Amino acid sequence: MGNSKSKMRKERRLSDDEARTQEETHSNQDLYLPQKKNEVERLQSMHFLFIHIFECRFLPPIENKLKDGAFVLDIGCGPGTWILDMASHYPCSEFYGFDIHVVFPSQIRPPNTHFKQANALDGLAFDNDSFDLVRMSSMLISFDEQQYLGVLRDSFRILKPGGYIELIESEIPLVNEGPIFQKLLDSFESLLSSKGIDIRLAQKLESLVSSIDGFTSIQTDRRITMLNEPEGGISGKLLMQTIDEFFQSSVASGFAAGLGLSLEEYMKHWQVCKDEIVTHGTGLALRKVCAQKRF
Ligand SMILES: C[S@@+](CC[C@H](N)C(=O)[O-])C[C@H]1O[C@@H](n2cnc3c(N)ncnc32)[C@H](O)[C@@H]1O
To answer: How many angstroms does the Cα of residue 230 sit away from the middle of ligand 1?
Structure first.
């Protein structure tokens, strides 16, 4: 552990001015801000929902490494919910997380957690072969496809031989969308594709990973959760709440402006979509893709 720890490149913390410039030059920051209180709570709920929906924290080989003591990196860690939860389950492992925004705990935190502010698009400031597990979750609207692939390549570089990558994203389109919701998502798709973002990235994860020579044992776990009651049960109800918060709060003003609607018009439209999700029996597919770096 001491060895690998000393391999981490020393990073200075950004000054406020530098951080602001970095935020301004990052094209997608106007659409999504994780600092909002509701968004932090939403990401926390999503974390526990993902564990419930996938019925496990990790595949067995990853879990064994974590029990023995592993180095783990969460890229775009947001409020650090995943890291804080995992750090308490696997006290022998060291958990690193970074995010472009400081939403993670900067002072009081478990001793086996390490957070810093950094932009993944500046390259991952860690030495080659440093980590046993690198993960990214819900980064769909943070990167365009080439940027995502670039971060994946860099993740490969910093993984130890035999180390794992784990990626989790939500599939768009949803399963059994009604016509009004479909139209709203089509508008989002055009808006985001004008910024280079592909909202269908989840469906491409496996091919992106396999395009990197040296990733092996690629596995996909796809789980559909119905969002209406009673079909979706408690997971569906909670997932629907997080989707509602996402559209109503986290991205509402950015999306309304991008679609040329007033916030009030956008909210009314979203309400109609929400009703349709229930009457139509819409579901959300989550995709988890894991792969191992060849020894
Ligand atoms: C939807 S949140 C997901 C957070 C966390 N991965 C989770 O699953 O709860 C996306 C996160 O990516 C961060 N992010 C976006 N662009 C980034 C970049 N270029 N470098 C580092 N973090 C970035 C955002 O600040 C935000 O916290």
So the answer is: 32
Structure letter (DSSP) for residue 202: G
Which ligand 1 atom sits nearest the alpha carbon of residue 119?
A: 20
- Indicate if the alpha-carbon torsion angle 78, 83, 84, 85 is positive or negative: positive
Contact 158, 73 (CB under 8 A): yes
Q: Does pTM top 0.85 for this prediction?
A: yes
Antiparallel, parallel or unpaired: β 283-293 and 215-226: antiparallel
- Domains of the chain are 2-170+197-224+287-293 (3.40.50.150)
Q: What is the pLDDT of residues 136-145, one digit of tens each?
A: 999 999 999 9
Candidates 176, 179, 180, 175; CA nearest to 271 is 180
User: Ligand 1: distance of its center to the CA of 267 in Å?
Assistant: 25
Q: How far is the CA of 31 from the centre of ligand 1 (A)?
A: 12
